[in-house]
Specification:
Layout lengths: L19 E6 L10 H9 L2 E4 L5 H5 L6 E4 L11 H13 L4 E5 L9 H10 L3 E5 L4 H8 L13 E5 L13 H7 L2 E5 L5 H10 L7 E6 L7 E6 L3 H6 L7 E5 L6 H4 L1 H5 L21
Parallel strand pairs: 1-4, 1-5, 2-3, 2-4, 6-7
Antiparallel strand pairs: 7-10, 8-9, 8-10
Helix pairs in contact: 3-4
This protein binds S-adenosyl-L-homocysteine.
């Protein structure tokens, strides 16, 4: 076995035992957003079963002789069936391999990680779960959007834009979601953006409600569209944004006017130091 060149801070890092599967989150894209447990797994794994949303640079960190198995959708081909992926993991574990299952973002957030782990445990395979930074939190942070802000929301809701069949989620109660949550973070929402918008407007959200769409968040190709519920469909049609994308609905989107740290890094000035109209600087308030 070749040694990985990756180093970790000194410590008692756990070993992947032969026959175990570690189900790890890779974060939203930027390799720097991997956790140390995930890096530790990459150093050891005999085989890595990875998804489409895992950045290629991350896989380069694996051992030279590690086997890499792609288990996602690519080039319009249908995605591998979930049960096939789970059974591949079972087989690899039964062969005594040290298996890393690497998924984009967090493995338990809209990623079917729960199903995979369940199948493994049903087959008597030992698993360890390594959480990751989910796109709906980390991706928005890279756009300068805090998912909570005390002047905006006491709750944030993560929503998936389509159900198991790929159709717009019919079971969503937009009235309830709208009432309960100042900020909605919608995964897999681009295909069904029209019905999501209609649902929110029908539930009483305003046409001028701020919306941000962040595509390829945390990667060098990150793009951010700032728009409103009223204008979003036209704006999406007029903007080139590749998948994947997160939609954020709510006034916390306005905070980007001051918190777009990537623009500040490029030397731009904040567009508005007080986009929520709080008045006094935060440090002077209770
Ligand atoms: N487990 C993942 C989500 C998987 S579902 C997580 O926790 O992030 C796939 C959806 O996640 C995509 O359709 C998109 O809505 C979102 N997503 C994942 N990575 C993203 C990225 N880098 N930028 C924007 N959206 C992303």
């Amino acid at each position: 076995m070749t040694e990985s060149t990756l180093t970790l801070p000194t410590g008692n890092w756990p070993e992947i035992k032969p026959g175990w599967v570690w189900l790890c989150g890779a974060g939203p894209g930027d390799p720097g957003l991997m956790t140390m447990h995930a890096v530790n797994a990459l150093r050891q794994a005999d085989v890595i079963v990875y998804d489409a949303l895992v950045a290629p640079e991350i896989l380069e960190w694996a051992r030279d002789d590690a086997e890499k198995i792609y288990a996602g959708k690519r080039g319009g081909k249908p995605s591998a069936k979930q049960i096939d992926i789970s059974l591949t993991l079972v087989e690899l574990a039964q062969q005594g391999k040290r298996v890393m299952r690497l998924k984009g973002g967090d493995p338990f957030v809209f990623g079917r990680g729960g199903e995979e782990a369940q199948t493994l445990i049903q087959h008597g395979i030992n698993v360890r779960i390594v959480p990751g930074i989910s796109a709906g939190i980390g991706g928005l942070a890279y756009a300068g959007i805090p998912v909570t802000h005390r002047d905006v929301n006491q709750a944030v809701t993560f929503v998936t834009g389509h159900d198991q069949t790929g159709e717009a989620t019919k079971t969503l109660d937009w009235d309830a979601l709208s009432r309960a949550s100042g900020v909605l973070v919608i995964y897999m929402g681009m295909k069904h953006a029209p019905s999501i918008r209609a649902g929110l407007l029908g539930a009483g959200r305003e046409m001028d409600e701020p919306v941000a769409i962040v595509s390829q968040a945390t990667t060098p190709n990150q793009k951010v569209l700032e728009t409103t519920l009223g204008a979003m469909l036209d704006d999406i049609a007029n903007t080139e944004m590749g998948p994947p994308a997160i939609i954020c609905v709510g006034r916390s989107v306005l905070m980007r006017q001051v918190l777009d740290w990537q623009a500040l890094e490029r030397g731009e000035k904040p567009r508005n130091l007080d986009p929520l109209g709080r008045g006094k600087p935060a440090e002077l308030r209770d």
